[in-house]
Write a structure and sequence with these properties.
By secondary structure, this protein is of the alpha/beta class. It contains ten helices and nine strands. It is elongated. The two termini are 34 Å apart. The relative contact order is 0.18. The protein binds 2'-O-acetyl adenosine-5-diphosphoribose and zinc ion. Zinc ion (ZN) binds next to loops.
Length: 263
């Protein structure tokens, strides 16, 4: 018996099936496709998004918890939120959406993934070219002297964990009001502009500069395809929007591609 809770698999309607078919064909025909993911891509792995009903920012005001100024002012307070985030991430596994993207890469149909997520789930699913636009939670570094620490769990003994120099340690993520590392922004721009198809998955597309990346593809004549449970800031500029859960839609796209190439 299918369960009736919110996590139940939704049966795709005719329009969704047609859109999936169209996207599958576009991917097969593309000279180089890329993807950009946001928090929605990991919701089905049990990691809440930021701006949704149960999102992290409904419980923590980002002004107080997510800017670099808030970290410098009160690192212990910000670490309460970070510890929760890291623990949630560590308990999470890739969902069928992450796995479908990894499969597309290994089939030579996806050049890489630009992700705003800090959860490493694309790598865990097997993707090899992952551009972590907002960093990751696999290691810590000192806010004062930049020394790196591989043991992310140092926070378990004190908030904030401290560097040998006394400075507060932070995860290797990007806080609001910080610069995106130059190398990742350059490589992402290059990937986006070299691609003729950009799949934008599970992001509200409001945080810049990440939200500009799909427009690099569009500016070079490429297409934008959005996969999201609802309309976003990007919808009006997308060539195709498929509404639904990425953990269900991406495996459908993969299956449609396999049917096409095996024909
Ligand atoms: P948001 O929380 O802003 O957006 C998540 C999007 O995913 C929303 O548009 C949801 O509708 C959609 N969504 C939810 N569940 C989904 C599902 N199962 N399948 C497909 N879509 C789904 O998250 P981001 O756009 O990632 O920054 O937020 C961007 C940045 O803002 C984050 O990287 C983070 C945050 O502050 C930093 O940490 C620096
Ligand atoms: Zn230090």
């Amino acid at each position: 018996m299918p369960s009736e809770d919110g996590d139940a698999m939704t049966k795709p309607d005719k329009e969704t099936k047609e859109k999936v078919q169209k996207l599958a064909q576009w991917i097969v025909d593309s000279k180089g496709a890329a993807a950009m993911t946001g928090a929605g891509a990991s919701v089905e792995s049990g990691i809440p998004d930021f701006r949704g009903k149960n999102g992290l920012w409904s419980r923590y005001d980002p002004e107080e918890y997510a800017t670099i100024f808030s970290f410098i002012e009160d690192p212990a307070k910000v670490w309460n939120m970070l510890a929760e985030l890291i623990e949630t991430i560590e308990g999470a596994e890739p969902n069928p959406g992450h796995k479908a993207l990894a499969a597309l890469e290994s089939m030579g149909l996806l050049e890489g993934v630009i992700t705003q997520n800090v959860d490493s789930l694309h790598q865990k699913a097997g993707s090899t070219r992952v551009l972590e636009f907002h960093g990751h939670c696999r290691s810590l570094r000192c806010q004062d002297c930049n020394k790196h620490y591989d043991d992310v769990h140092l926070y378990r003994t004190e908030h904030p964990p401290r560097c040998k120099c006394g400075g507060p340690l932070r995860p290797d993520i990007v806080f609001f009001d910080e610069q995106i590392p130059g190398a990742v922004i350059r490589e992402s721009k290059e990937l986006a502009s070299d691609s003729d198809l950009m799949l934008v998955i599970g992001t509200s597309a409001v945080v810049v500069p990440a939200a500009y990346m799909p427009y690099q593809t569009k500016a070079n004549g490429g297409r934008i395809v959005e996969i999201n449970t609802e309309a976003t800031a990007l919808t009006q500029d997308a060539d195709l929007s498929i509404f639904g859960k990425s953990g269900e839609l991406l495996p459908m796209v993969l299956k449609a591609i396999k049917d096409l190439v095996e024909k």
